[in-house]
Amino acid sequence: MGYAETFKALSDPARRQILELLKKGPLSAGDIGSHFDMTGATISYHLKILKQADLIFESKEKNFIYYQLNTTVLEEIMLWISSLQGGGKDD
Amino acid sequence: MGYAETFKALSDPARRQILELLKKGPLSAGDIGSHFDMTGATISYHLKILKQADLIFESKEKNFIYYQLNTTVLEEIMLWISSLQGGGKDD
DNA sequence: ATAGTATTTAGAAATATTTCTAAATACTTA
DNA sequence: TAAGTATTTAGAAATATTTCTAAATACTAT
Fold first, then answer.
1. ∠B62-B71-B51 over CA atoms, to 5°?
2. Of A1, B36, B74, B91, which sees the most CB atoms within 10 A?
3. Which of B3, B7, B78 shows the shortest C-beta gap to A78?
4. What are B11-62's pLDDT values in tens digits?
5. What is the pTM of this model?
6. Where does A14-91 show beta strands of DSSP type E?
7. Residues on chain A touching B69 (C-beta within 8 angstroms)
């Protein structure tokens, strides 16, 4: 909800890397954490930011929470960026 | 130079609005400032951030500095976003 | 129920961002 | 050269972000 939230979420390198990991498919918080030199608490914080920006969603299964990419919001910001690129005197 | 810089620059509403204003053509720092309820110093700060992110460039003319959109970097981040969207198991 | 694993929440410290005022710089023109 | 306009820089205050440790929650399986 809102470009600020989306762009802010994308501005952190760890969060961008999380999205890239999720490109290949769903991962648990623990799996994600294993790619970083950060505590689980910090990973959880970044996942929360990504979730709030609607860039990922979660699904619980057994003892795990799996995270997946949500590309809907990405399409919206692509549109915003396109409008800047294409835009001329008459927009 | 670096997605972090670009996304961080785009995460501020004032800076996004500046880019939208520049869509229509070059504007001086003062012209830009007249659209906001902020001091000139603050506008100058935001312009510096956008400049550092290569989202705008300036050209001096008479007593004014004119700012213009630079869409090159926008294309790069569109590519990064596209790669997330299209990406499947084999990327 | 108990113990174990996975993840989040709370609280605190360090750092970064945003904004202001006041002063400095740069350029123009009388 | 002096005065005026446009913009930036410096320094400080308020707020936000990122990270940690320690504790809490949630679920599983014995």
1. 50
2. B74
3. B78
4. 999 999 999 999 999 999 999 999 999 999 999 999 999 999 999 999 998 8
5. 0.93
6. 27-28, 56-61, 64-69
7. 84
